[in-house]
Amino acid sequence: MEDLLRIDGLKLTFETHDGPVSVLRGVDLTVGTGERVALVGESGSGKSVTARAIMGLLPQRRVRIGGNLHFDGSDVLKESAARAKARRGRDITMIFQDPMAALNPVFTIRQQFAAVLTRLDRPLCAAEAEDSMRTALRDVSIADPERVLDSYSFQLSGGLNQRVMIAMALVSRPKLLIADEPGTALDVTVQQQTLHIMGNLSRSYGTAILFISHNLGVVRKFADRVCVMYAGRIVEEAPTDVLFSDPRHPYTRALLASVPRLSSDRLPEPIGGSVPDLAALADGCPFEPRCPSARPECRGSVPVHRFDRRSITCIQEVAPA
Question: In the chain, what are the domain boundaries?
Answer without folding.
Answer: 3-102+176-236, 283-321
